[in-house]
Amino acid sequence: MLKSKISVRVAMVITVSIWMTVSLIAFQNCGADLKAIQGAENISSQEGEISNSYVEEFYEVNDFEEVNSDFEVENSIVSSAASKSCRKSDLKFRLPLNGAQGLRWTINNFVDLAGRKNQLRDYRGKTGRNAKTYDNHAGIDFDVPNFRAMQRNYAIVAAAPGVVERIKENQFDKNTNCNRKIWNAVLIRHNNGFTSTYGHLKKNSVPVKVGQRVKAGQKIGVVGSSGCSYHPHLHFEVRDCANRVVDPMQSNMFRTKPNYNSPLRLMDLALKAGPFKSYVALQKPPLNNTKSILLAQKLGIGLYVSGSKAQDLYRVRFINPDGRPAFKHEVRLSKDFDLSLWRFDAKFGRRGLWTVQIFLNNKKVRTAKVRVR
Fold this sequence. Notes:
2 helices, 38% strand, disordered N terminus
């Protein structure tokens, strides 16, 4: 039986109300230690309003649950590693996800190398709260922005050639907590005798079979949130011939090594008719963004950002149907986030085609149009 661990901490809702003319935005801090900057642009009563604007972040925690990655007996084979070299130098990995770091995926946790309970250390030598890991974490967690990635079948690929030894794919895949322990996963035995496990997969997404030989880069599943998982992600775990955890970052086993810190990027922008009323709702936006809402409705806005650092500035700006800036909302961070999820609500004061602009550190990174009917 293979075991792995995953955990996430969520700082819940911080509520802000903005009306007409605003000079200072104050946050009721729920543990995220966020600060808003001064000066939202003036708006007239004819132009519109933002009411019940929310900010919410996603980040890692110390409390975790053990994941039972038990594979069904009928979906597994056992092969001997006796004839293998069992040398790290004989195995090189490509990344198990396609796409650019920061835009398509970000890393939230690395392997815990401390070897002792409650003493954290990652491959960069960072310890305690500064380490990007949690107690006894045996793999690398590649996070995607939201459940849209799963709905759009974001593929997981084999990181190196090998033979599929174990598969489990019949478990629920939209978890946002640790209530379900058993995950969907694939285990591959590589040519040197090492194994790689790909966990938390989407239900019934595995296109390969036990005993099948796969190539590096071949699709073996889809990112999901099965088992003990708070957010859709891939847990990638490597073990040697003696079933001991191997850190591919420390051992330089990636042909293209991912960065320790992801760059600041907007991973996704979600727009929906009506507000995102909870963190879970923000994790599960509609598959496609809304392009129009009724005048009586609010526009729900979700931002999914990777690689945030203290003092980074987020801005949401609205351009009215006449092409003039109507109002904006800004937040300056006071701590780092590998992946953060933010939600805002906007209620418009008149009909027409509005423009929503997203800025990160004064750089415009996304523009969307919404027609208010």
